TrEMBL record:
<feature type="transmembrane region" description="Helical">
    <location>
        <begin position="78"/>
        <end position="97"/>
    </location>
</feature>
<feature type="transmembrane region" description="Helical">
    <location>
        <begin position="351"/>
        <end position="373"/>
    </location>
</feature>
<dbReference type="InterPro" id="IPR036259">
    <property type="entry name" value="MFS_trans_sf"/>
</dbReference>
<feature type="domain" description="Major facilitator superfamily (MFS) profile">
    <location>
        <begin position="36"/>
        <end position="476"/>
    </location>
</feature>
<feature type="transmembrane region" description="Helical">
    <location>
        <begin position="321"/>
        <end position="339"/>
    </location>
</feature>
<dbReference type="InterPro" id="IPR005828">
    <property type="entry name" value="MFS_sugar_transport-like"/>
</dbReference>
<dbReference type="GO" id="GO:0022857">
    <property type="term" value="F:transmembrane transporter activity"/>
</dbReference>
<dbReference type="InterPro" id="IPR003663">
    <property type="entry name" value="Sugar/inositol_transpt"/>
</dbReference>
<keyword id="KW-0472">Membrane</keyword>
<feature type="transmembrane region" description="Helical">
    <location>
        <begin position="34"/>
        <end position="58"/>
    </location>
</feature>
<feature type="transmembrane region" description="Helical">
    <location>
        <begin position="164"/>
        <end position="185"/>
    </location>
</feature>
<protein>
    <recommendedName>
        <fullName>Major facilitator superfamily (MFS) profile domain-containing protein</fullName>
    </recommendedName>
</protein>
<dbReference type="InterPro" id="IPR020846">
    <property type="entry name" value="MFS_dom"/>
</dbReference>
<feature type="transmembrane region" description="Helical">
    <location>
        <begin position="420"/>
        <end position="440"/>
    </location>
</feature>
<keyword id="KW-0812">Transmembrane</keyword>
<keyword id="KW-1133">Transmembrane helix</keyword>
<feature type="transmembrane region" description="Helical">
    <location>
        <begin position="191"/>
        <end position="210"/>
    </location>
</feature>
Length: 506
């Protein structure tokens, strides 16, 4: 016994310190962080409601003409795409609000237009009232989801940031599935009232578990509140280093303060945007995300959400459309859980590239089946292969192209310009989404019908793979400061300068 005690006492000090650090790091899960992320992620529930509602609404309005009258083709397009008009307005709003009033205050403000919007839709007696309601839900959707993403990126540890931010995908998928399940069997007004009730969930959740982002508080000079917020997020006995984390954030902020041009900082928003675009840490992620969002929208992954019932009717002829739509929603929901696990364990780049490859191949095969059927091959095999390919297409999209581009801006933009740039970037994405959804029928006509659409989306899916391979950096398990440093010296990911690790080894 004495010999064992002697050996313990003789153990080198640095080994004891390493053991202590390892013991402290054994438990990386933080319930405070998890509850805060879940609370703000509930806004994606009504985002799923908004995305899935038009897929069941328009077919019903074409049947129940007594409710709001007979709809024109233009009115149907506006009902489907109007949330993509409200969304850019919401994105421009957060460009002013995120930095001025805070991440959580902006988030809480976004919840009330959603409640009002669903109430208007449920009570609508005219197609224009439905469009106004969807404009409000689109505005709320963009403000809520983007402020939630920024908030989660700032409060989450690097190891858990991907899985925490993907919780929203689970909520969104559940919202879409709920709309499909209820909308295929219930009247659209009843479905709208269900969404109205569901819109109160994030209001209740965020009342308890969401203190303001400590990163934002430090950048605003509110050090006492920032320290209090950090203590809340590190309340577990396994969590250490509250003061160390505070000092690290404070040092980063002070270094950046030395580089800030005070005249520019106090000038109007357009001059500030122009000034920041001169920095490689800003203009590179801006350019990459502008292109990436165009590619994302024209893979058809969101157009399919808005026109799911009508597209499945064309692609999977001969199968009961109710079961096909429910199967589609169920697959998307189940895959959102898989996406959460995969984002925790795998990088953004491989997930995006594998997702794009599978989407491209399945769309091409689905188009080939559609072509063979148009040539007279009516075998049941063609129908089921088409359905299987569409299910694989949406499944692959759910773990990559559909999800990851929304996460990247919150990770890639520097903290001090997130509020300034994420809004316009997301406005751009939603504007492209509006074009893709609103002019879907026109594009189909230009490309010669559904066959042209399927092969066009297939080509863009493969093109997105090459874009990610060349330009999008890996952000998985990286500190936000490390991601920012990457853009200072790198543009092409394959030619990136690799850091030396001598200091880390020492």
């Amino acid at each position: 016994m004495e010999e064992e005690n002697t050996k313990l006492n003789e153990k080198p000090m640095h080994e004891l310190e390493m053991e202590e650090i390892q013991n402290k790091n054994k438990k990386t899960f933080d319930w405070a962080e998890f509850l805060a992320c879940v609370s703000v992620s509930t806004t994606n529930l009504h985002t799923g409601f908004a995305l899935g509602f038009s897929a069941i609404l328009i077919p019903q309005l074409e049947i129940y003409t007594d409710d709001v009258g007979k709809l024109s083709k233009s009115q149907c397009s506006w009902i489907a795409s109007s949330i993509s008009v409200g969304a850019p307005l919401g994105c421009l709003f957060i460009a002013f609000s995120l930095d001025r009033i805070g991440r959580i205050s902006t988030f809480k403000f976004s919840l009330w237009p959603c409640v009002i919007g669903w109430m208007l839709i449920a009570l609508a007696f005219d197609p224009n009232i439905i469009i106004i309601g969807r404009l409000l839900t689109g505005f709320s959707m963009s403000v809520g989801t983007n402020s939630a993403n920024v908030y989660m990126a700032e409060i989450s540890s690097p190891k858990l940031r991907g899985s925490m931010m993907s919780i929203g995908s689970v909520m969104l998928s559940f919202g879409v599935l709920s709309m499909y399940c209820t909308g295929l069997y219930l009247h659209w007004r009843v479905v709208a009232w269900i969404a109205f009730v569901g819109a109160f969930l994030p209001i209740l959740m965020t009342a308890f578990w969401t203190p303001e982002s400590p990163v934002w508080l430090i950048h605003k000079g509110q050090d006492v509140k920032a320290l209090k917020s950090l203590k809340y997020f590190k309340n577990s006995k396994h969590s250490v280093g509250v003061q160390e984390s505070f000092n690290e954030m404070k040092n980063i902020k002070e270094k950046k303060d030395l580089l800030i041009n005070k005249d520019i900082e106090n000038s109007n928003v357009f001059r500030r945007i122009a000034w920041n675009l001169s920095k490689p840490t800003v203009f590179k992620p801006t350019l990459f995300m502008i292109v990436f969002f165009v590619l994302q929208q024209f893979t058809g992954i969101y157009t399919f959400q808005f026109h799911a019932v009508k597209m499945l009717q064309e692609v999977t002829q001969g199968i009961d459309i109710k079961y096909a739509t429910l199967l589609f929603g169920l697959f998307r929901f189940l895959l959102s859980f898989v996406a959460t696990g995969m984002l925790h364990n795998y990088g953004r780049r491989p997930l995006c590239m594998i997702s794009g490859i599978i989407m491209g191949i399945t769309l091409f095969i689905s188009g080939l089946c559609f072509y063979l059927r148009s040539q007279g091959d009516d075998s049941i095999i063609m129908t089921w292969v088409s359905l299987l390919c569409m299910l694989l297409y949406i499944s692959a999209g759910s773990v990559g192209i559909m999800l990851i581009p929304w996460i990247l801006p919150s990770e890639m933009f520097p903290t001090e310009v997130k509020g300034l740039f994420i809004g316009p970037i997301m406005a751009w994405c939603n504007a492209v989404m509006f074009v893709a959804v609103h002019f879907y029928e026109d594009l189909k006509g230009i490309l010669g019908g559904m066959l042209g659409i399927l092969w066009f989306y297939s080509f863009i899916s493969i093109l997105s793979v090459f874009f990610v391979w060349l330009f999008i950096p890996e952000t998985h398990k990286k500190k936000l400061s490390e991601i920012e440093d990457y853009f200072k010296d790198n543009t092409l990911y394959l030619l990136r300068k690799k850091k030396t690790v001598k200091n880390e080894q020492l």
